[in-house]
Amino acid sequence: MTETPSSTMPPPSTAVVWRSVGLVLRVLTVISLVVSLIILTTNTTTVSSNFGQIKIRFQDIKAYRYVLATIVIGLVYGFLQTAFAIYHVTTGNRINGGDALYFFDFYGDKLISYLLATGTGAGFGVSVDLKDANSGTVSGLDKFFNKGNAASAILLFAFIFTAISSILSSLSLPKRA
Amino acid sequence: MTETPSSTMPPPSTAVVWRSVGLVLRVLTVISLVVSLIILTTNTTTVSSNFGQIKIRFQDIKAYRYVLATIVIGLVYGFLQTAFAIYHVTTGNRINGGDALYFFDFYGDKLISYLLATGTGAGFGVSVDLKDANSGTVSGLDKFFNKGNAASAILLFAFIFTAISSILSSLSLPKRA
């Protein structure tokens, strides 16, 4: 046991459980983000107009571009944190052993979870109402926005996993006052 | 001085400054939410159609109803926290003096800031793309969605103030491990 024991510290077995929970949350986040990314970026539809067939891709919806940006940033962060979590679980130590990484977790989780929250909101917001606005007009659009909703729903899970990571990293902060 | 001194504790004057910062953040949050609420709920427009004039209100956009819900919940929480913060600044103590209120702040700030983040995302997402979809067709709609963007922008500030409160309440948590 390399950590300093104190009266409030959980026994080592509990600490190991918490580290594993942390790793599972990181892995679930990355999986959700990858699935959401695939659903979002493969989403295209073709609608008929007086000027012929028009292909609609996810890039044509500005909010979906924002959603994509949040997913990509979330993924980069998620891979990094998964690597850190694997190191933490397998060795029982943090990479530099000091307090700096706790603050990186704390601010990183906060920032990324907020980013994913806004992405989720934007994805649902635009999908629900653009689907409504086009309901009954073009059948391909209905499916297009349903897929947008699906990508947002998976992103919602990624956001929730990151929010839980954020709660854990806040509770793990070294005492300030 | 009622608090136990320790080597890491800031001197009382710093603590007073932090309490005041906390109160200012709560007040700024409430003001932003009220302004956003007014812009959102007074937003109506009238568009001409083959069937006569059609009045469009914010309730017709589902995402705006969600934004309204996040603002109202944020306001209830904001008023409560402003009252607590006034008590804290004027008396120098928390209401029940124990740890419970720190955890209420911590989880409350986290939950409400995430809620406001999703509301901000939904508001911008739907406004930007529905404005795009209707650009050049009906002039009244352009102004309608501009107002939706304005309400979302003010809500973004409320979210940021709450996110800062959330950072402060996380850092104020009693030590766990």
In terms of per-residue confidence, which ranges of chain A show pLDDT below 50 for 5 or more consecutive residues? Answer: 1-6
Q: Which range does the strand content of chain A fall in? A: 5-15%
**Spatial strand order of the main sheet of chain A:** 1-2
Mean pLDDT of chain A: 87
The radius of gyration over CA of chain A amounts to: 21 Å
Largest interface: A-B, 40 and 40 residues
Shape of chain A: elongated
Please estimate the helix content of chain A: over 70%
Record field, number of beta strands of chain A: 2
Structural class of chain A: mainly alpha
Largest sheet of chain A: 2 strands, antiparallel
> What is the number of helical segments of chain A per DSSP (H or I, 4+ residues)?
4
Measured distance between first and last alpha carbons of chain A: 27 Å
Assembly level: homodimer
**What pattern of helices and strands is seen along the backbone of chain A?**
HEEHHH
Subcellular location (chains A, B): Cell membrane
Main location (chains A, B): membrane
Keywords (chains A, B): Cell membrane, Membrane, Transmembrane, Transmembrane helix
Membrane topology (chains A, B): Multi-pass membrane protein
